[in-house]
Specification:
mainly alpha; 56 residues; 80% helix
């Protein structure tokens, strides 16, 4: 990783950290994960396929 890439990564991280709405969403998602409120990849893909078939 170059110094420029490292600076860009730090800048992006700071943009996330100062975005209160985004941080709130991240924290809410982490709480959902901790409670086990998650879906497998297969469940998500199946749901997308089913939605696609209903809207066609």
């Amino acid at each position: 990783m170059t110094a420029q890439e490292e600076r860009e990564g730090l800048h992006e991280t700071l943009e996330i950290l100062v975005d209160a709405e985004l941080m709130s969403a991240i924290l809410a998602a982490r709480e959902e994960i901790a409670r086990g409120e998650v879906h497998t990849t297969d469940e998500v893909l199946t749901a997308f396929r089913e939605r696609g078939q209903r809207s066609a």
